[in-house]
Amino acid sequence: VQLQASGGGLVQPGGSLRLACAVSGGILDHWSIGWYRQAPGKEREGVSCITGDGTAHYADSMKGRFTISRDVAKNTVYLQMNSLKLEDSAVYYCSAEESYGSSYCDTRYGMDYWGEGTQVTVSS
């Protein structure tokens, strides 16, 4: 499976962005897709994931401002980010693992396939 993240950019604090992860070589029903981020000098951080049956999970610190969703017809997973803060600046990556019918995924752990990241910069 191949993944391509897009939608990053420069946004002011309090603004919003929607990232997209286009998936090819597999259908979303069979895969859990996760969003991760990494800021300079910091460890990779899990953000959110969505399973093959469409169940969404969020890292505790990401609940409330971020929403993950998917469009099965477009084989694309989205991350809607609202009320962005300076500390949300990072390279955001999407990742995939086979879901095997599970409704559970956990971004405390890395997944098997990774795409190129997209830069999100929150700055005034």
Explain what the structure shows.
The chain contains no helices and eleven strands. It has 124 residues and is mainly beta. The strands form two sheets. Strands 2, 4, 5, 6, 9, 10 and 11 form a seven-stranded mixed β-sheet that branches. The radius of gyration is 13 Å and the shape is globular.
Topology:
Blueprint: E1 2-6, E2 9-11, E3 17-24, E4 31-38, E5 45-50, E6 56-58, E7 66-71, E8 76-81, E9 90-98, E10 113-114, E11 118-122
Parallel strand pairs: 2-11
Antiparallel strand pairs: 1-3, 3-8, 4-5, 4-9, 5-6, 7-8, 9-10, 9-11
How far the N terminus sits from the C terminus, by CA atoms, comes to 37 Å
Question: Assembly state here?
Answer: single chain
Helix content: under 10%
Radius of gyration: 13 Å
Which percent range describes the beta-strand content? over 45%
Mind summarizing the main beta sheet? 7 strands, mixed
Shape: globular
Gist of the model:
With 124 residues, the protein is mainly β. 0% of the residues lie in helices and 49% in strands.
Please give a handful of descriptors for the protein shown.
four-stranded antiparallel β-sheet, mainly beta, seven-stranded mixed β-sheet, single chain, 124 residues, globular
